[in-house]
Amino acid sequence: MALLISWRPSASNISSFPFIVKKTSPKSAKMGFFNNNISCSVTSTMAGQSQRKLPILLFDVMDTIVRDPFYNEIPAFFRMPMKELLECKHPTTWIEFEKGLITEGECARRFFKDGRPFDLEGLKNCMQRAYSYIEGVEGLLNSLKENGYEIHAFTNYPIWYQMIEDKLKLSNYLSWTFCSCIFGKRKPDPDFYLEVVKHLNVEASSCIFVDDRMRNVEAAVEVGLNGLQFKNADLLRKDLSLLGVNISTNENPDLAECSS
């Protein structure tokens, strides 16, 4: 189980979701790694939050909720192996596109170092065809929604996130609130995490962040959020349950089937 959490107790307004905390070694304590079970509670000192169900859940999207076409379909589209693609593409163009600093057209013009043209609409169609829910995740999101949790996307992605929404309708389960192309910041920039917490108007310790990339999870823990590394839907269910998140078992069987 890849479990990272940060516990910062307060004296007032104790909320009711318990954590399983583990005793740390001095080296791992800074990053929030825990061993040996100890029960505790997480607190929220924000005024007026008593009616808001905590924790708030923040989900990365690519390779956490949705399969990322970058590793297979995109190299195939360009008819080159991944190693060659990485060598040929411009090192910062996609990052700038994800941050909303350049347009789609400029991204296409600068995608390759040598400026070679390519079929932009063909690439977008290839990506949209490849988008699919990771096995078991849609059912998990539905369970969290049915149990009344507030769920937000917290993702590094350009305006093409709308293509994901058009195909998979993630908005049935979460809000596309924190996209890098809207905020002009990318994970693991600490300022992005802090802006998320400020926007939500809760303490960082009242949020659980889920991401497949450990460095993004570690960055979340550094600023006080509770972090979980995504491996698969079954392990995430167990990790969330250890953090006291109520996940019902009365899932829509159609969602379970579509997610598998």
From TrEMBL:
Give one Pfam family: Hydrolase
InterPro entries linked to this entry = HAD-like_sf (IPR036412), HAD-SF_hydro_IA (IPR006439), HAD_sf (IPR023214)
Domain of life where this protein originates: Eukaryota
Q: What name goes with this protein?
A: Flavin mononucleotide hydrolase 1, chloroplatic
